[in-house]
Write a structure and sequence with these properties.
The protein is mainly alpha-helical. It has a single domain, classed as Winged helix-like DNA-binding domain superfamily/Winged helix DNA-binding domain (Arc Repressor Mutant, subunit A, Orthogonal Bundle), CATH 1.10.10.10. The chain is built from eight helices and five strands. The strands form two sheets. It has a three-stranded antiparallel sheet. A two-stranded antiparallel sheet has the order 4-5. It is globular, with a radius of gyration of 18 Å.
Length: 229
């Protein structure tokens, strides 16, 4: 019998999802330093809900994730760096791990939204393949750890049902309501999407630059920006 699926706190889910994202979108900066991980967790794009975490919260959650074998600290690094072990720790295939990661970062989404938001992580052939992996996780037998996602009731006025992960426990039905951004007009929505994509790319570049600065400071025996000796 497989171990039961771990129940994560929202902070632990944010950390795990951020590590999974950065491993695929900024591989040159991965594994992440504590500073870069903090920036990724608190970034203002591709996150639902937004968070303002501090180092103490991150470190406490890291310890719990390590105990659950979902996160590892890289040994031998001059600066502490962290990497996820989500796929093996959760016992799921790559495609399912990608879907869980995006759900942890962005909240409940339709299969179509998931396919679009997963593009930088993994390119699904079509929406049907996304739904197939979601249904497999929803129907996961108790002896294998139980369901990991749930298909939510269709929200009023919505054309498609949304999916949510269960890694933080049962889902609040209120999450089935689409955000106000979903009701914006076509042109405005397209412009907003393009702006968010641009900001997301810039934040990824900043995270990569921060990781480079941390590494250079360590090699020169200096404290990273914002820290004292």
């Amino acid at each position: 019998m497989s171990a039961p699926t771990p129940t994560l706190s929202p902070i632990e889910a944010r950390i795990l999802g951020t590590l999974m994202e950065k491993a695929r979108t900024v591989p040159d900066s991965y594994p992440l330093t504590l500073n870069t991980l903090l920036l990724g967790c608190n970034q203002k794009t591709s996150r639902e809900p937004l968070m303002e975490l501090d180092e103490a919260q991150i470190l406490s959650a890291i310890e719990t994730l390590q105990q659950a074998q979902l996160l590892r600290e890289v040994s031998g690094a001059r600066v502490r760096r962290f990497e996820h072990n989500a796929q093996r720790g959760l016992g799921v295939p790559e495609q399912s791990a990608v879907l869980l990661g995006v759900l942890m970062l962005r909240g409940a989404q339709t299969a179509a939204e998931l396919r679009l938001n997963c593009e930088r992580w993994y390119k699904f052939a079509d929406i049907s393949s996304v739904e197939g992996f979601l249904e497999e996780m929803q129907d996961r037998a108790p002896e294998k750890g139980g369901p990991m996602v749930v298909k939510m009731a269709r929200a009023p006025g919505a054309r498609e049902q949304r999916w949510a992960h269960l890694l933080c426990g049962p889902v609040d039905p209120a999450q089935s309501c689409p955000s106000s951004a979903d009701h914006s007009g076509g042109g405005a929505g397209t412009a907003s999407h393009e702006t968010l994509a641009r900001v997301e790319r810039l934040e990824a570049e900043v995270a990569q630059l921060r990781a480079t600065v941390d590494q250079l400071c360590q090699e020169l025996g200096l404290s990273p920006p914002g820290q004292t000796q």
